[in-house]
């Protein structure tokens, strides 16, 4: 079922409303900030020794709310009218997006990945609640900055290091296997590159697997993959030292044919560096896909192009 976008005062980027300087209305929840640490809090913020709790909206509703105007909460990302992200204090985010029925929630994916005890860092789920038409996901921030933000200051050594690190992460995740295509809970994955052009948004495992089979991918088994490893979803140290890496934004992650991993780097412009980060925006994904190829990862780009063009003409 298509998601119904809202506009005006109900736009996704207005999902947070201010009650007072230390309380905010978020869907059916009230977020409270206290100027002290607390064992009873949902999370503590060591940056300023504060704490945050979430409670159900009281009845009657707060008498008045205003547009967000806070020292502690800032809108940091918008994806058009589909989703928005706010930073909360020094170490948390609230990610609001429209609910897509039939797809695995990001919180379930993150909990699965963390249970594998990976070598890389991921956000910790603090709280996740589903409203009438949108979900509210509270996450612990992964320390550092995005690779895209760090890129202009990185020398050749560190750029090469992060290519190798991400290839290593791709290999690590392929060790998590499944006999079935789909999300970690058996639901769909919102991978639009496996949809027929102009077709309804059917992200069900059978529909996406049929597309993979039409391109000749090996669908006898499936491996876990994060299918959106662009520079804005990779977190690196503020100043390179240990070379550790964090990975965020697991919405398009689950069990795919192995050949989709390299293919996605080759076809997705969304994995480019931003124009502000580099005058060679394709460099990142080009180098990652080459390194994957050298590590025996196949791709189906030619078949994907023919498949997409074929459906465009039908």
Spatial order of strands in the largest sheet: 4-5-3-2-1-6
Q: What is the share of helical residues?
A: 10-25%
Backbone shape: globular
* CATH C-level label of the largest domain: Alpha Beta
Tell me the fraction of residues in β-strands, as a range: 25-35%
- Judged by helices, strands and strand pairing, the structural class is alpha+beta
The largest sheet, given as strand count, sense and whether it forms a barrel, is: 6 strands, antiparallel
String of helices and strands: EEEEEEEEEHEEEHHEHEEEEHHH
Outline the low-pLDDT stretches: none
- What radius of gyration results from the CA coordinates? 21 Å
Q: How large is the count of helical segments?
A: 7
Terminal residue distance = 23 Å
The second-level CATH architecture of the largest domain is Alpha-Beta Complex
CATH topology of the largest domain: Aminoglycoside 3'-phosphotransferase, Chain: A, domain 2
Give the mean pLDDT: 93
Q: How many discrete structural domains?
A: 2
Instruction: Tally the beta strands.
Output: 17
Topology:
Layout: E1 16-20, E2 23-26, E3 29-34, E4 43-45, E5 50-56, E6 66-67, E7 73-79, E8 83-88, E9 92-98, H1 106-115, E10 125-130, E11 134-140, E12 145-146, H2 147-150, H3 156-173, E13 177-178, H4 205-214, E14 222-226, E15 234-236, E16 245-247, E17 253-256, H5 259-267, H6 283-294, H7 301-313
Antiparallel strand pairs: 1-2, 1-6, 2-3, 3-5, 4-5, 7-8, 8-9, 9-11, 10-11, 12-15, 13-14, 14-17, 15-16
Helix pairs in contact: 3-6, 5-6
């Amino acid at each position: 079922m298509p998601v119904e976008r809202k506009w005006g005062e109900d736009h996704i980027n207005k999902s947070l409303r201010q009650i007072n300087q230390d309380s905010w209305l978020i869907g059916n929840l009230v977020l409270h900030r206290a100027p002290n640490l607390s064992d009873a809090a949902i999370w503590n913020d060591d940056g300023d020794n504060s704490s945050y709790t979430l409670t159900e909206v009281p009845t009657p509703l707060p008498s008045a709310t205003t547009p967000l105007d806070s020292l502690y909460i800032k809108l940091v990302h918008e994806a058009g009218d589909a989703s928005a992200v706010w930073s909360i204090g020094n170490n948390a985010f609230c990610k609001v997006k429209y609910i897509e029925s039939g797809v695995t929630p990001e919180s379930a994916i993150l909990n699965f990945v963390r249970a594998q005890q990976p070598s890389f860092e991921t956000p910790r789920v603090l709280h996740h609640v589903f409203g009438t038409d949108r979900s509210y996901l509270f996450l612990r921030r992964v320390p550092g900055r995005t690779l895209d933000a760090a890129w202009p200051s990185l020398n050749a050594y560190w750029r090469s290091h992060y290519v190798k690190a991400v290839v290593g992460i791709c290999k690590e995740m392929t060790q998590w296997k499944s006999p079935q295509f789909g999300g970690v809970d058996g639901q769909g994955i919102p991978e639009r590159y496996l949809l027929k052009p102009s077709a309804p948004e059917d992200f069900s495992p059978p529909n996406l697997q049929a597309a993979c089979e039409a391109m000749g991918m090996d669908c006898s088994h499936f491996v876990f993959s994060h299918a959106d490893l662009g520079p804005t979803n990779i977190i690196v140290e503020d100043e390179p030292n240990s070379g550790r890496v964090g990975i965020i934004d697991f919405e398009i992650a689950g069990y795919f044919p192995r050949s989709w991993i390299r293919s996605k780097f080759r076809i997705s412009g969304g994995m480019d560096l931003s124009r502000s980060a580099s005058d060679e925006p394709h460099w990142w994904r080009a180098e990652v896909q080459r390194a994957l190829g050298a590590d025996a990862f196949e791709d189906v780009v030619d078949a994907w192009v023919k498949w997409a063009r074929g459906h465009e003409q039908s």
